[in-house]
Each structure stands twice: as structure tokens, then as C-alpha cells.
Amino acid sequence: MTWAWAERRSAVRYALELTVSCGLFEGGRMLPAKPGKTRNLSRRGILFTSEQQYEAGSGVWMSITWPATRDDAEVELSILGHTVRSDPDGTALVIDRYTFHSSGSPAL
């Protein structure tokens, strides 16, 4: 018997290592940031590593300085999501909301 493994992800993942700031999002508040790095990302999720451990189901906020500029201003990607797993390879985050904005303009 042979097994054909089908990709179950619903979106293509891109291997990008970007610096992030992230923290727990609880009770409508963003708790203090910890540094981290993305391992890969898609339009629906991010695999990242961080100094902080996150349990599955945790609400997480994240800010990523995007590798592009707009009108000579840095572009930030702000994300609210929830974790689906966390292991030695990293934490998998499902993106619930996101927005791109220029540095200095309001985020989420």
C-alpha cells in the first residue's frame, strides 16, 4: 500500500526570516513585547520563534517591520491571531486580523 500525502495547508507558505515583536493579547490588552523571528508565513498564518512560550489557543499580537518602504517610511505589519501549536520548531499562529501601516501611523 502506498500513501499519497497531500498538502493540507490552505495557503502557500514563504520562507522569510523577519524580526518581530510579539506578546500575549488578553482582555483587549497587548501585554509587553518579546523579540522573535518568523520562520515562514502565508496569508493565513505564521510560524515563528520567540523568547516567550505560547500555549495553543493563546491570543497573540505581533508587529513585523516589512522589508519594503512607502514614501521613504518603514512599513509595519500588525497582526492579531491565536496559536494552534507550539513546539521546539516554533509557534504556529493563525492570523485573525492584520493591517499594514507606515511608521508613526496608528496600528490595529
Notes on the protein architecture:
The chain is mainly beta and 108 residues long. The protein has one domain. The chain is 0% helix and 59% strand. It has no helices and 7 strands. The chain has strands at residues 19-26, 29-30, 34-41, 45-50, 59-70, 73-87, 90-102. A hairpin with a 2-residue loop joins β1 (19-26) and β2.
In brief:
The chain has no helices and seven strands. The protein has 108 residues and is mainly β.
Task: Summarize the SSE layout with pairings.
Blueprint: E1 19-26, E2 29-30, E3 34-41, E4 45-50, E5 59-70, E6 73-87, E7 90-102
Antiparallel strand pairs: 1-2, 1-3, 1-5, 3-4, 4-7, 5-6, 6-7
Order of helices and strands: EEEEEEE
The residue ranges in which pLDDT falls below 50 over 5 or more consecutive positions are 3-7
Mean pLDDT: 87
Kindly report the spatial arrangement of strands forming the biggest sheet. 1-3-4-7-6-5
The helix content is under 10%
Please describe the biggest sheet, giving its number of strands, its sense, and whether it closes into a barrel: 6 strands, antiparallel, barrel
SSE-based structural type: mainly beta
Rg from C-alpha positions? Answer: 15 Å
Number of discrete domains: 1
Number of contiguous helices: 0
Beta strands, count: 7
First CA to last CA: what distance?
Answer: 50 Å
Based on CA inertia axes, which overall geometry fits? Answer: globular
Binned strand content: over 45%
